[in-house]
Records
---
Amino acid sequence: MTQFDTIIRSGTIATASDIFSCDIGIRDGRIAALGHDLGTADEVIDATDRLVLPGGIDSHVHISQPSGPDVVMADDFESATRSAAFGGNTTILPFCLQEKGQSLRQALKDYHALAEGNCHIDTSFHLIISDPTEQVLGQELPGLVADGYTSFKVFMTYEGLALADREILEVMSVARETGALVMVHAENYDAIRFLTDRLELADKTSPRYHATSRPIVVEREATHRAISLAELIDVSVMIVHVSNRESMEEIRRAQAKGLKIFGETCPQYLMLTEKDLDGLNMEGAKYVCSPPPRDEASQAACWEGIQTGVFSVFSSDHCPFRYNDPRGKLTPKGKTSFRWVPNGIPGVATRMPILFSEGVVKGRIDLNRFVALTSTNHAKTYGLYPRKGTIAVGSDADIAIWDPKKKVKLTHMLLKDASDYTPYEGLNVTGWPELTMVRGRCIVNDGRLVGGKYDARHTAKNLAGVKREYEPSNINRSKRCFVGAETFTARLEYQKGLRP
Ligand code: DUC
Ligand code: ZN
Ligand code: ZN
């Protein structure tokens, strides 16, 4: 009888705080030992010259969300979690969107039905509140927080989603009472509608005008307002997908005042600019997301926010629509105006290679900050720590083994999602996740989905009907199952302590 199921030998381990060399002994899906000469194992993985990192946690991902009439998201749970695994992720947190008039519990049941049995990596839901009725605020939300759904997103823009300030205050108030976290999409809805109407009247309808319709001031104002509302209620708030300096400075100021305001930014705000929306014909539609990519100065500001800790998490905001598809970016209505082009871009697989290459390899951030931004801080913020987000005895064996020197030219074929493009086509990166392990089971090894019946030519739809020969890792079956009392308390402690 061997002592471990697996030993990862001779790698360099990095956590959010340390870098050290030792072996990892894994038993029953958990890290059972860290040390040297650990003994015997059924399987030994040689990690010489490799970095052994906590698996990535991407806490901002959209999957199978209804996106308007005749538009469908490219990825379902199978393809999104497959792509995530290829990008070194072991956990994702997608959204369960409540549609107007819908009960939250019913919405959650529907998302669980889509996800269960279809995920390659661990998955746990945030809620999107679009209809904060008395029933939702008084009954459903408190009940769901008690069940472990401890984070919810509100939108300050979008038809059918935007909440009025009063409604945001009501949601924040429930979060305050229950210890939950509110995520805010901060853009001023009326300002965007006003500008969009004017642009359309002037026949300025191509994708490039998407950026013109949502200038920085629109985001900055909403960020300021969201922070003010949070201050009023004294609640923890994450301002998601921040794109520019002015919004970043609002968050920095709030943090300096001691408010529990957190910030997130994403690869598109480091790597793209509004010029990308300028492509010929409808090419620019590939880059339509909200907030829109800005300019080089905004990119530099987002790097500064990453370096100084204003942004504690770096997420993908993976929100994929196929490009060459009438139910995707090229929806017929979208050709008449940017107003109707589906908002969002794919990125769950490219998030970490981009930050590693542009951040660590180019010397902008160190390896510990990389781990914090891509894994540990997500776990701490959303109540998954210490079970997830670190390499420690007792933690889940959620591990990604990286070749820090491998040079890769990004191309869509590598990413194994169900979209038909990547916004980062042709980008050269250094550093690549070679092996992704979830709770001790290899999911991806050396560019292959391990043990799976997998053919990249299948669309997600085809795969749904195929009986898989591998056993997909269990998703969080009923609730934020990783949120035990101890992790929940750890999150609140973390929030108190996290100051730049
Ligand atoms: N907001 C998101 O959070 N994701 C994609 C599109 C959007 O507007
Ligand atoms: Zn958003
Ligand atoms: Zn999003």
Note: Residues 451-488 have pLDDT under 50 and may be disordered.
---
Amino acid sequence: MTTSLTFSDTVSGKAEGDVLVVTLNNPPVNAASAELRQGLWRALDHARSDNAVSAVVITGAGKSFVAGADIKEFGKPQVDPTLPAVVEKIEASEKPVIAAINGVALGGGCEIALAAHARIAHSKAKLGFPEVKLGIVPGAGGTQRLPRLVGCLEAVEMIGTGKPVNAEKAFGIGLIGAIAKGDLLSDALALAQSLKGKPVLRTSERIAPRSDQATVQNTIAKITLKAKGQMAPGEAMRLAASASTLSFTQGLSDERETFLRLRDSDQAKALRHVFFAERDAAKVDGLEHVEPLPLNKIGVCGLGLMGAGIATALLSAGYELIGYERDEPAAEAGKARILDILGKNLKSGRIDQADFERQAANLATTAKLRELAPCDLVIEAVFDDMTIKTELFQKLDLVIRSDAILATNTSYLDPDALAAETAHPERVIGLHFFSPANIMRLVEVVRCAQATPQAVATGFALAKKLGKLPIVTGVCEGFIGNSIFSAYRREAEFLLEDGALPQEIDAAMEDYGMAMGPFAVFDLAGLEIAWARRKREAPTRDPEARYVDIADRLCEAGRLGQKSGRGWYSYEAGKRTVDSAVTEMIAQSRAAKGITPRAIASEEIVKRLIGAMADEGKTLLDKAIAARASDIDLVMINGYGFPAYRGGPMFAASR
Ligand code: CAA
């Protein structure tokens, strides 16, 4: 006989014989909200006091087991019972508690599973500790229980990187005891029957399997290096590694103290902002009820570095791809470039042999534009020149179906002008990828003036399908990212003229957390594109506006960046080196303008550069190019190396 019980709005129970099945149902992801914790608490009380219950199975409704603490509660007064208290109560139960992990068990969700006396998972389940991505450490025993199950090495890796593991890996390392062979609940009930009446096995009482200490320390060093500037990974790994030396109680109190300290840190606040910013970016005004067009076959025109990267991303997502180049040898070279990236993915283990073969079979290249006729969407990634792009779009317009989408990958050109040259401007959008396009997460989806909502929605959905982060932008020169980057460049050059040297500006920004300082980035990207733009703009430039000509002098001297071996720095043997010739050129330019250089502290450098980005951001918001400040933050974090733990320029400037 089955009896239904209600413990709270989000927690229900069902007696399956003498096993109480507790189901957590807090859509959309079963976050461990106060309501859910209270319900679970009551369910455990019920199980303890009801003699008819011999064991408990905890499972989740929907796609999640529990996706962790409710992030919306962070920063608000704590409501009892806390997650650590609930987790402790689970483990303390005298009757066996089985976690039947039906989907994602993340953070606090994984901690609930670890506190159970046995764990069985669906084959599609994922378990992990993403806390470091939120600037915190696990706060309900995760750093102490996980190593006691899987050893310090695996625990340090999982907790330090925040990457989840699938059920197979979880089983392999001992994180779960079984993967369901049939129906998860039936298997969990059978497991409960086999455990009832026996003494329970508490994770906190286990001794961590031995890990080689040198390897643990090496792993910590590697992850710390990658997580440069962030506090949480180092703290999380220190806690996990301490499980081999500290008692459970000592480790737990250290974990709690660290969790509370980090939860209120600026880094955690910034990373929470980023988390919610990403969810907000998915909500695009005007697209709420718009169905994207179905896409199967996609064309990419131009198979250089950018086009090949885009093509690889499309193949990885399962699309059939037709790559176009201007002649047969270029098409063959493009194909080889794409296959080379796929081969590297195979070699690194990112894809397996079957994936490689499937993706290679989905790839065709051609030098005949008419062969793009069956495409549902075509992305052009040819040289960023208006005449070349216009001609290509006009031809494509005649070749593809009238309902197929045309997307331009231009960085700076006006896509509205391009659309106006076609017979169907309503199907033209921008999809601005970042190089290497198979790796970089950001895609700016450009809402062209005449584009239909469906065309924009289709581009947006495509980027999501590629596993990218699409951000919608209006049309202006450089869209969101390059507009902000131009303001950053401008201010960096003002700083240069005022007295700071490139290496001082770069050091200040790298210490702040930027992946690279601005001048190192200019050199990497090459100085010629910005130079050409400055020359183009020269006739219309306001003669009263401040203009720094040092970059022009560099270009005139053939210092075009890393590719030419010299730019803001010199690159003998590939190593970035300060060049006295550049210092001299800067001094000459200042002297010619009568500027007396002054020492500029790194705090001022950072403040001025972030301020310049934020000011430009405000202009983009005023002009409705960006929908929200947090979209601008995401663009700079995911496309320009802005440190996520600073929240992006708009967030940083607002604090
Ligand atoms: N708390 C509150 N809300 C959450 C949440 C959480 N832990 N996780 C997801 N949500 C919300 C999102 O904000 C989003 O809300 P809106 O629809 O209102 O925008 C909604 O759930 C759906 O989220 P996604 O769009 O991300 O859905 P998805 O299906 O693509 O991904 C997921 C689901 C894998 C669970 C993903 O949401 C995720 O990774 N969530 C974060 C998990 C996490 O970081 N957990 C650790 C929390 S910290 C912790 O647990 C510390 C502790 O021990 C005390």
Note: The radius of gyration is 28 Å.
